Amino acid sequence: MHFFNFGRAAWRRGLLWALLAGPGVAVGQQVPGPAAAPPDSARLSQRQHRLSEVQVRAVGPERFAVGSRRFELDSAVLAQYRGGNLADVLQARTPLILKNYGPGQLATIALRGTSAQHTAVLWNGLNIMLPTLGQNDFALLPVGTNTRVSIQPGPAAALYGSGAVGGAVLLNNDPDWRPGSRGSAQFDAGSFGLLGGSLEARTTTPTVAVRVAASYREAQNNYSYVLREARGPVRYTLQNAALRHQWSISPDVAWRVGTAGEVTAAAWLTDADREIQSGVNVAGSEARERDQSRRLVLGYRHLAARQQWAVRGAWFEDIINYRDRGTPSNSRVRTTQAQAEHTSALGARGSLRLGAEAQHFAALVGGYGSETITENRAAAFALLRYDPRPGLRLSANLRQAVLPAGLAPLTPTVGLEWDLLPAPIDTLTNSPTHQLTAKASAARSYRAPTLNERYWLPGGNPSLRPESGFGSEAGLRHRLSWGRRTTLETELTAFRQDVDDWVQWLPTAGTGIWSPRNLRQVRSQGLEASTALRRRQGHYTGSAQMAYHFTDTRKTQGSTADSDPVGVQLAFVPQHQASFATDHRWRDWLVSGTFVFTSFRYTSASGTDFLPGTGLLGATVGRTLHGPAGTSLLVLVQAANLLNQAYDSYPGRPAPPRTVGGSLRLSWN
Amino acid sequence: MKKQFVPFLAGLALLAACDPKAAEIVPVPEPAPTTGVFVLSEGRFGAGDGAVSIFDKASKTLNVDAFGSANGGAKLGDVVQSMGVQGNRGYIVVNASNKIEVVTLPDFKTAGTINGLDQPRYFTSTSATRGYVTEWRGPFTGYLPGVLSILDLSTNAVIRSVPVGRNPEQLLALGGKIYVPNSLDNTVTIVDEASAAVSSTVTLSDGPSSMVADKDGNVWVLCSGFVTYLSTPPFTATRVSNGALIRFSPNSPATQFKLTFPATGGPSKLRINPAKDQLYYAFGGAEYQMSTAATALPTTPFIRRSFSGFAIDPRDNTVFAAVAPSFSTNGRFIRYQATGVAIDSFEVKVGPNGFVFY
């Protein structure tokens, strides 16, 4: 159905007003709650927490990111891509820029033209960026694990701490307090040796909610491609590109303690064994990589009417073991994190959150030598939300991090939303009604140097400064409704993001040893436009969504040691990305189509060599068959690259031709 | 309402037509045989975009990808390491693609491919039918003794492989012998051309990597020395052995004249001028020039700059020097007068590392 929640379109109107404009705008507002939670497509960013007669909502951090663009992958969309990874769904459904080495291979994001290290990835509020590399491989994040995936591009993400320069990707498992047990088991098969399966099961009592999600996937990726050689075009089969296995298991439990307390515990274990595809002109590579992550988080949250507080502790272990014929290159990082925050109401119109967090890293990495390297980081923050009147919402945040090399830049964030045309009170009319909101936000952001940048042997630079960013965005959000059945929501955002002290690895004069240094300034600016039409009538629900991103990212200034030219569009940042998706459900049928266009992108800093533009078409057809005792069977057929375009996803890495896959999902209630 | 999507789709079609024009396929007239310089660019590892550019000295024009433009856009391969010339044939050693692309000169049209190689490095030949290529063996974490492969240039096939030391580099053919410097050892393997067997192995200093013959028929070997890194903080680099420049006569390789470099760096890329009486090498971020009659290493650089490739044009003594600032940016080459005064410079592909004059 809906796959993006652009802004707040899917919010129920009444709830929208209760949340944003109602007099009880302060935290912990008490709303007489409907018995059932809203449907998935209307899931709020504020979690439903049903106490006996009233609901007290936990306040999510996004509440303090006023005035910024934010979008959410709807659970109906996540369900369609449940066998895949986060890179798959983002590439098929959004105009976001991902740099991808092939199916199942390394995939990194470039939000608003920034680098892979400039997008923070948070799982249940905790940063899960790999401390060694300072980035995430989106191919290692299976979609089915999380119930909610949202993307917060731009400056307001700075409230999430280090790395959120271009934005943040937020993964969450929210407890589902609807009583009873339900679940589903799915089997997937597809082109080029793709096999997979997944399971999701929940059970909920009035005090305990348990969920387990697990998935398995393997793929041979032995598709053919044509290489133009001197003797003519020659067809080869891709070698050493198999996904040997990819497991993910994530159990979580929520337990209500007393009338206001909630204990949550969650784990996420992933294990992937991949052959690492080298460039197709490189002969005889046998590279393999084993990626394992173990993530545990334990939290307690106290929700009262006028104040909330929460503490969380987490322990992560990330293992990357790489080998290519020779001695393996192994790394293991253990991260211990603690967070505490307190949120209180400021009168009837404001709320203030104060908090602190600390991280401890212990890294045993072949590249750092034989000893375990440890590093500590800490940060304190104050987040303020204030709505002076119903149609005007403001936020102002401040965050200060302490890093081993000293203080990180102080990162303030400010945001504003102003309803130029407020929503009409009468929502029953069928004549078109308009709603128009202006929004703006600005923030400073930073990225702490990664462990590799500080400790790599040789070349690691312990005196590296954090990168600092300054970003701003402004735009308009328009919503046109015809009664409650049809809406057209359009959003236009212009942004600018400057990054200073951008880190670049370059050979040191004299020794030739590659070393990271704070060398350059980069400016990214652009436009993001999106429009989504949704209709619901009788047994039909449908939507059509289009989005276009213009991203202009250039180095604006650099030191003499930095040879990359100034003023050239950065490599692997296409200037134009556009996506179109349409989803239709009628009775038991489901039909979806997606088209993503990516313009050419340079493959080096010189701006001479490039990968040509691509247009990728995908489609899904599904039918649900109802069985006895609340069971149902969903039959899903999915195809990607329907136009069978031959292209390289990265130089020397041919992308898959047309692929077809099928899924069977058995659900029970 | 859906009609408003139509202009959007039309816009997409327009954007799709926006790719920059592919510049490399435009045919450039081949230069006269006496004015061409082939510039080798490694390309980025994994991208398969190594190239040989043809620079025409007369017109100062550059055909950036000579192989691609002569062969229907075919890619040369991954990591263009070196190139040798025999008659009107060029032999381009493509290291990571494990092959040598054979082309006719000067048009660069394909004349076959030599396969069956593993980590090929440098090529030389002694006749129209006999070629030699050094190859490494083993992974980078534990190299094994390499080989000198003997090639039949009439069939483009490997005849046999002679075991040599670890990481054999820039070989030299002289007086019926092939001299192979084993850069991860301290030896030069001498292979007899007629018997295709090792005749002797000479011990020098650590890291022999490049060699030349001077006007008197002596062999000069540049040894880079070895460096290790401390495995605990602060990870300082420690020089295990210093570099050395060694001269010996082919008649008595064990009798060596040796100049030792200071521990401040490792020398590399030994070259000689067309008159074969001036040596050139890179050391400590600069290029040095030294007479073959000198008895001490020079202390003042010839050009105070670090180059990724260096060669002297035998036709007019012009110096060609390559600059590869990083592997994310195109490289350049700079022309210098024989005195070391810069003339001009041109942009080539990523990672230029050498020049061939034809």
UniProtKB/TrEMBL annotation, chain A:
Key word Transmembrane present: yes
Membrane topology, from the record: Multi-pass membrane protein
Signal peptide from the UniProt entry: 1-26
Species this protein is from: Hymenobacter arizonensis
Protein name per its UniProtKB record: Iron complex outermembrane recepter protein
UniProt keywords, alphabetically: Cell outer membrane, Membrane, Receptor, Signal, TonB box, Transmembrane, Transmembrane beta strand, Transport
Gene Ontology biological process terms in this record: siderophore transmembrane transport
Entry GO CC: cell outer membrane
TrEMBL record, chain B:
UniProt xrefs under InterPro entries: DUF5074, Host-pathogen_enzymatic-act, WD40/YVTN_repeat-like_dom_sf, YVTN_b-propeller_repeat
Keyword Signal attributed: yes
Alphabetized PROSITE patterns for the sequence: PROKAR_LIPOPROTEIN (PS51257)
Keyword Phosphoprotein carried by entry: no
Keyword entries, A-Z: Signal
Stretch forming the signal peptide: 1-22
Listed Pfam families: DUF5074 (PF16819)
PANTHER family: DIHYDRO-HEME D1 DEHYDROGENASE, PROTEIN NIRF
Name of the protein: 40-residue YVTN family beta-propeller repeat-containing protein
Annotated organism of origin: Hymenobacter arizonensis (Siccationidurans arizonensis)
